[in-house]
């Protein structure tokens, strides 16, 4: 175990000790009521229109993240919160004609813009799907990697979302989270809190890397032995 991963796990242990459930919010979607609501702020969804793709490429962001995630030709990958498709189109190039990329978002207009981009760039290995706040709407047993890049802190129903994502992973599949270590109301999430929320559903942390050059951290998760039952999931404390 690397020193960074060991330190991350120490932080995770602290976060787990604060897991507890909250009084249900009557304004939540009915499909999420069997799951706890998060004991933390949720960032507002920012514009999906990126004007800084060149700047991100100058840092080598997507290429380095794909390298860390071991993305290879022929893989099937989901890009959740795809927006304008910064990662989607680059993943499509990396997995090649024998691979597939599913771009998902809850913003219908963003997906329409992405669809036009896919047509314009003639990317035939990309599919587009509308998701829900508490359900990524992914097909079962399908994905080698599921990317959650700078979007997990915007998920309003993280426990329902993660629980319903579980079946979409293929054997040996992994969830890749790229985010920033700052409060969840400031478009980031502290690593210990991220670890706790995924562990509460049944995922295992397998790698954590801090990348100041990318202004982010990289975390990799796999399914554990079993998925927690919704009534047994406790909300992780952000205190």
| pLDDT < 50 runs, ≥5 residues | 1-10, 12-22
Indicate the proportion of strand residues: 15-25%
- Overall pLDDT level: 88
Enumerate the strands of the largest sheet in spatial order, edge to edge or round the barrel.
3-2-1-4-5-7-6
Measured distance between first and last alpha carbons: 27 Å
Helical percent range? 25-40%
The largest sheet is: 7 strands, mixed
H/I helix tally: 7
Order of helices and strands: HHHEHEHEEHEHEE
Could you say which overall geometry the principal axes of the C-alpha atoms support? globular
The total of beta strands comes to: 7
In terms of structural class, how would the helical and strand content be classed? alpha/beta
Q: How would you sum up this structure, described in words?
A:
The model is unreliable at 1-10 and 12-22 (pLDDT under 50). Strands 3-2-1-4-5-7-6 form a seven-stranded mixed β-sheet, sandwiched between helices. The protein is globular and about 45 Å long. It is an alpha/beta fold and 239 residues long. The chain is built from seven helices and seven strands; from the N terminus they run αααβαβαββαβαββ.
Give me some keywords for this one.
seven-stranded mixed β-sheet; disordered N terminus; alpha/beta; 239 residues
């Amino acid at each position: 175990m690397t020193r960074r991963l060991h330190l991350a796990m120490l932080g995770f242990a602290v976060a787990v000790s604060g897991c507890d459930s909250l009084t249900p919010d009557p304004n939540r979607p009915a499909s999420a009521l069997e799951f706890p609501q998060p004991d933390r702020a949720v960032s507002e969804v920012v514009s999906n229109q990126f004007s800084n793709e060149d700047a991100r490429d100058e840092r080598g962001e997507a290429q380095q993240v794909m390298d860390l995630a071991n993305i290879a030709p022929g893989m099937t990958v989901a890009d959740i919160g795809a927006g304008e498709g910064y990662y989607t189109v680059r993943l499509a190039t990396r997995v090649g004609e024998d691979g597939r990329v599913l771009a998902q978002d809850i913003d219908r207009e963003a997906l329409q813009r992405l669809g036009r981009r896919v047509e314009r760039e003639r990317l035939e290995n990309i599919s587009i799907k509308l998701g829900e706040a508490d359900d990524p709407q992914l097909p079962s047993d399908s994905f080698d990697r599921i990317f959650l890049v700078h979007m997990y802190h915007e998920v309003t129903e993280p426990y329902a979302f993660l629980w319903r994502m579980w079946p979409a992973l293929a054997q040996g599949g992994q969830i890749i989270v790229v985010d920033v270590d700052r409060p969840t109301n400031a478009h980031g999430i502290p690593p210990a809190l991220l670890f706790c929320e995924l562990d509460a559903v049944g995922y295992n942390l397998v790698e954590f890397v801090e990348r100041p050059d990318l202004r982010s951290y990289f975390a990799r998760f796999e399914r554990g032995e079993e998925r927690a039952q919704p009534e047994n999931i406790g909300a992780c404390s952000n205190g």
